[in-house]
Design goal:
Blueprint (H helix, E strand, L loop, with lengths): L16 H12 L3 H18 L9 H12 L15 H4 L20 H11 L5 H21 L6 H11 L15 H7 L10 H8 L6
Helix pairs in contact: 1-2, 2-3, 5-6, 6-7
Length: 209
């Protein structure tokens, strides 16, 4: 009996061991014309085994790239696409650029700061006022996510004015969403089972079937 632990490691396991064996066989064919025929047949099978790739742009190109990768780039066939190189495959992605500068009120999040800057650019009117009122409620929601204890609405109004350099204020008839409503809508944090350790101890030594 042949076990997976004793078999060669598959380069792209998603295609299965049979496809890998087909690729290895194609690589061993001496006649190039026969290798080309075998490679095209493997591509057809790979496409049938992965129909979801048909929704991907240039899915045929992707299949050919995978074929060369599975052959460790040793398969000498005529590809309809540019043959990838090991160097390109091992290239590291560019480092992500993180926002520079310190955020004074980090618990509100960057999106709130961006919304405040956007609201400041609006002309005075109903649309701007509706946005400011929505920002105030969003600030309260973010604050309670950061600290789920009760918070004074006056603190939110003070922070809104400070963060907008005194240019934004809620409407006169504005009312904050209640703290209880916001907290009940937030997903509950999973609680640890108190008897988890006891349960494990009772099951210790039991045979599994």
């Amino acid at each position: 009996m042949e076990y997976n632990s004793g078999r060669p490691k598959m380069i792209i396991p998603e295609y299965g061991r049979h496809i890998q064996k087909m690729v290895d066989f194609a690589t061993s064919i001496k006649d190039k014309e026969e290798r080309n025929k075998c490679a095209r047949s493997i591509i057809d099978v790979m496409g049938q085994l992965n129909p979801h790739l048909r929704d991907v742009a240039d899915f045929k190109h992707k299949l050919w790239d995978h074929l060369f990768i599975m052959s460790n780039f040793n398969l000498d066939v005529d590809s309809p696409y540019e043959i990838p190189s090991p160097e390109i495959l091992n290239e590291k992605p560019d480092a992500l650029e993180y926002p520079s500068g310190k955020i004074k009120n980090k618990h509100y999040g960057k999106i709130v700061i961006e919304l405040i800057e956007k609201a400041k650019s609006y002309d005075e009117g109903e649309e701007k006022q509706s946005l400011v009122d929505a920002i105030a409620n969003l600030m309260k929601r973010h604050y309670l996510t950061w600290n789920n204890k009760s918070i004074s609405d006056e603190i939110i109004l003070k922070d809104l004015k400070s963060m907008s350099t005194g240019t934004l204020e809620v409407s006169k008839d504005f009312e904050f969403a209640s703290t209880s409503d916001i907290l009940t809508r937030q997903p509950a944090r999973p609680k640890k089972r108190k008897n988890q350790g006891h349960h494990r101890q009772n099951n210790k030594g039991k045979r599994k079937y």
